[in-house]
Amino acid sequence: GSERPTERVRVDQVGYLPSAPKRAVVAVESDGSTVEAERFAVRDAGDGTVALAGALSNPIDSPDAGETVRRADFSTLSEPGEYRVAVGRGETADGDLRETADESVPVRVGTGVYDGVLADAVRLYTLKRSNTAIDDPVTGLDVPPGHTQDAEARMYFGDAFREEGQELDVAGGWYDAGDYGKYVPPAAVTVGQMLLAYERYPAAFEAGQCDLPVERLGVERSAADGERESELPDLLVEAAFELEWLERMQREDGAVYHKVAASEWPAVDEAPTDDDRERYVYGLSTFGTAQYAAAMAMAARVYADDAPAFAERALDNARAAHDYLEDNPDPEFRFDAGQDDGSGPYRKDTDREERFWAAAELLKTTGDTRYADYLEVRFVDRFDAPPRAPVWTDALSLGQWAYLSADAADDARAERLASAFLDYADDLVADIEADGYGCALDTEDYHWASTKLALSKGGMLLLANAIDSDDRYVTGALDQLHYALGRTPTGYSYVTGQGTHPPRNPHDRLVEGTGTSIPGMVVGGANRNGDDETLAAYIAETDAPPAKCYVDATASYSVNEWAIDYTAPVFLLLGHATTMGE
Ligand code: 9MR
C-alpha cells in the first residue's frame, strides 16, 4: 500500500466502551519531524464541539516505535458518540485548542462497539471452511465446496495401519491461513482458545449472533438424532466444525497425523475450487497428538449439555490420544522428505508443554487421578515453569490454567500456579504501562505474528483477573485489543475490515482468488525480521524500528497474512469486553 496512515494521533479505530479507560497516543517526535502538542481536545465528530479537554501526559520514550509519545487520557468521557481526538497548544474560551497540530480518525464511544468485531471474527472461520458451499450475503463470498478431493487424500507415507498410497477421508476443516493447507497444531490450539473463551465468558457467545451463512452442521445433527434439539452458540458451531475435521486426522491407535496439503503451493490468486491438485496427509507428531487430546478433552466439557453424544465422542478421542502418548513417551515428529514443498512446516521437536496441557485438560474434565499421577511423574517441573502466553509452539500455560482451575487439582499446587499467574500479570502490566502505546510486546517480540502474541498476552491478564480481580489487569488486556484495532505506531489496524485504516491487501488466496474482502482477519503485523522480500526491502529502505516493520502488501506474507491461530486469542478479550458491566 502506498497510502500509509498520516494521522499522528492514534486511537482504537473501532472504539471504546463507555465505562472503560480511553487513551489516545500521539507521537511528538517521529521520523525527524515534530508535532508541537501539550494539550488535547476530544471533539464531537459531527459539530466539532469539545466534549473533554486536558493536558497531554509527560513525554514517554517509546524505543520500539522509534518515537517519543504523549498520551491523551479521556477515560472520563462516557457519553456515547463519535469523536476525534485533537492535539495542539493553547486553550480557547470554550475549551478547544488555540492551535491544532493533528487530529485522530473518528473514534466511537458506546456499549456494543465490539459486537461487530466479534461477529466478523466468528464468521471468518465459517467463510474459511473447506468442502463447504458458501453464499454469504454479508461479504458477497459465493463459492462452491473447495478441496472436495480431501475426501480421498493420499497417505504420503506407509505406516503400521495404512500402506503407502492408501486414501483417507480428511474433508472438512478450515483453511489454515492465506494458503489452503490444514494443519493440526494451529487447529487444536485455535479450538482450545475458542473453548476457553466460551468457558470464561459464556454470556458473550450466543446462538444466531453472527448470522452464519451455513446450515448448522454436524454436532447438532447428531444431537437431534439422539437426544434433543440444541441451540449451540455460533462460536461452538464453528469450533465443532473444526473438531470434526480433527477427528478425521486421528489414527486407529490414537496418534494424530500432522497436516493435509498439496505438494506445491497454489498461486496467490487461485480460488479454492480452481485448486484441484492431489492432496496428501503428511507426518505425525506427539506434540500435535497432545494438542488434539487437550482440545478434545475441553470439548467433552463444553458440549456436554448441548450436544452430549458429540461430547462423549470427544472424550473417547482425547483418551485414545492420551493412551498413545503414554505408550510412546518420547517426542516424535515424523518428517518425510518433501512434505513441506507446498505447505508450512509447523514443526516442533519437543512436546512437554503439549503433554502437560493434554493431561491437565483430561484431569479437569474427568477428575481421573491417573492424569494427575501422569503429571506428577512426568512433568513435575512444568508446574513451576513461569507462565507464558499460549501460541501454537507453546501451550504450557493453557495446561497450567486447566490444572489450577480443575476440581481434582492438588490444592497446594493449584495455589502456587495461581500466584505464578498473578506474578506474570503484575510484571506484564508494568511493561504495558511503560510502553508508549500500551503494547505488551517486548522489543524481540516484534517477529512473525506479533499481533497474535500481543493479544495472547492480553488474554493471560484476563485469566489472572479471574484468579484475583484487578482493574489493572483488565485495562492491560483491553490495551492489547486497542493495539490490534489501530492504536499502533504505524497507524494501521491489524484486523481486516475493522477501523479506518485496516489492512487492505492481505496475503490470502481466498480473498485474491474470489475478489472478496473478508473482515475479521488478524494479520501478522510488525515483524522486525523481514521474513519476506517485500518487507525486507521496506526495512532496508526505511531503517524502520521494530514496531514499524510493516507493509500493507499482498506479497508480504510475513506481516500481512492471517492464520486461524492469529484471530483465536481475540475471543477471550472480546468475551470480556462484550460482557463488561453485565
Ligand atoms: O504462524 C506461523 C509462524 O509462527 C511461523 O514463524 C511461520 C514460519 O514457519 O509460519 C507461520 O505459519 C504459516 C504456515 O506455516 C503456513 N500457513 C500460513 C501460516 C501463516 O503465515
Q: Strand tally, please?
A: 18
Number of helices: 17
Largest sheet: 6 strands, mixed
**Percentage of residues in DSSP E strands:** 5-15%
How many domains in all? Answer: 2
Can you name the CATH architecture of the largest domain? Alpha/alpha barrel
Topology record:
Blueprint: E1 9-10, E2 23-30, E3 33-34, E4 39-44, E5 50-55, E6 60-62, E7 67-73, E8 81-89, E9 99-103, E10 107-109, H1 115-127, E11 134-135, E12 142-143, E13 153-155, E14 167-168, E15 182-183, H2 184-200, H3 219-226, H4 234-248, E16 257-261, E17 280-285, H5 286-302, H6 308-327, E18 333-334, H7 352-366, H8 369-378, H9 396-404, H10 411-434, H11 450-467, H12 471-484, H13 509-514, H14 533-542, H15 557-560, H16 564-567, H17 570-577
Parallel strand pairs: 13-17
Antiparallel strand pairs: 1-2, 2-3, 2-7, 4-5, 4-8, 6-7, 8-9, 8-10, 11-12, 13-14, 15-16, 16-17, 17-18
Helix pairs in contact: 2-4, 2-5, 2-17, 5-6, 5-7, 6-7, 7-8, 7-9, 9-10, 10-11, 10-12, 11-12, 11-17
Please give a structural write-up.
By secondary structure, the protein is of the alpha+beta class. 36% of the residues lie in helices and 13% in strands. It is globular and about 75 Å long. The protein starts with 8 loop residues before the first strand and ends in a 5-residue tail after the last helix. 56% of the residues are buried. The model is unreliable at 158-162 and 218-229 (pLDDT under 50). The structure holds ligand 9MR.
